[in-house]
Amino acid sequence: MAAPTATVPTSEVLREWGRIGCIGFGGPPAHVALLRELCVEEREWIDARHFEDANAACGLLPGPASTQLAIFLAHHVAGARGALVGGLAFILPGLVMILALSALYLGGSPPEWMRGLAAGAGAAVVAVVVQAGVGFGRAALAGREGAQRIRAFAYALIAGAVTIVAGAWVVLALLGCGLFELLLRRSGWANHAASVGLPAIVLATTSVAALPDLVWTAFKVGALSYGGGFVIIPLMQADAVTNGWMTEAQFAGAVAFGQLTPGPVVQTVAVVGYAAAGIGGALLAAFVAFAPSFLIILIGGERFERVRADRNARAFLDGAGPAAVGAIFGAAVPLLEGVTEPWQLGVLAAAAIALFAGRIGTIPVLLSACAAGALAALAGGAVPA
């Protein structure tokens, strides 16, 4: 990986990364495309091969990959100060928007249309999550044959089951599957195994206080999530509902808001933080969730190419990646519990048809679901609490 050029003024980084943070609707694919357009095509700050290597290396790391790519590129063009400025400029616009939505939605008496809007989006987001699982699943199975494919299915089934039964501990499934695959490769058995099983470990814990629990939830999101932004859903869901911070319906709405706002999907953790402890909890959750991304780039950015080529890292992700796909599918089950009204089922069915048959993009589908929900609420339709 090329060394940082550190020739671009931080004021320019602030402007350009802030612009992407404001218009980056559509999640990681949109972020990567906008960053490539800026850094490779328009300004030629980094060549295409180095960009693709950085993007691939970020995909091997835990946490929000597109955020880490944005921080890495800012570090490449403007050094450590540029990384801090660029990363914050990329994150903060969407964070401000989602905090405003949180205050409106989770306030003491949210307007009826707002509750309906969230309920409609929450219904559609179930289809969005399933679509994401299908897409990630195809990518995870690409190039795998025989025993590797069987193990990938096993890892996905394990993580999916843990997500449904004990979602708060899905991180154990992700780590366990990754470590199991790593040990299997290093032992030399991987080429001969016909299939592999891994017992799901289910633990229970007692909440001590809201803030420690919130910090742990945010830390899992920022430092222990593998496989893209949608993996944060099972990592947060059980914590948010079990601890009494949010209902299933409120959490589904929060996930939808994370999709509808620009910037990284990980900002959904701020909604959970707001529900747990107000604005202070939202800011704390966001800080804990994003801090690992900054530390990873500032400390190890120049070792990215070695990480990408490392066999151990690759083996671990070959186990954790399929497990993350299973966790995404598993998250759709508890999200469905927030869909309780007949009109929501209609919105969910329409969203599924639009996404899978009509191949319409996520943002138009969610915006349509928001409009349908708001209209249903204003027309007197029941809205889940």
Automatic annotation (TrEMBL):
Membrane topology listed for this record: Multi-pass membrane protein
Highest taxon above the source species: Bacteria
Transmembrane annotation, as ranges: 83-105, 117-141, 153-183, 189-211, 218-236, 271-301, 313-336, 342-358
InterPro entries, alphabetized: Chr_Tranpt_l_chain (IPR014047), Chromate_transpt (IPR003370)
Pfam family membership, one: Chromate_transp
Intracellular or extracellular location(s): Cell membrane
Keywords: Cell membrane, Membrane, Transmembrane, Transmembrane helix
Keyword check for Cell membrane: yes
Similarity annotation: Belongs to the chromate ion transporter (CHR) (TC 2.A.51) family.
Matching PANTHER family: CHROMATE ION TRANSPORTER (EUROFUNG)
Protein name per UniProt: Chromate efflux transporter
Organism of derivation: Svornostia abyssi
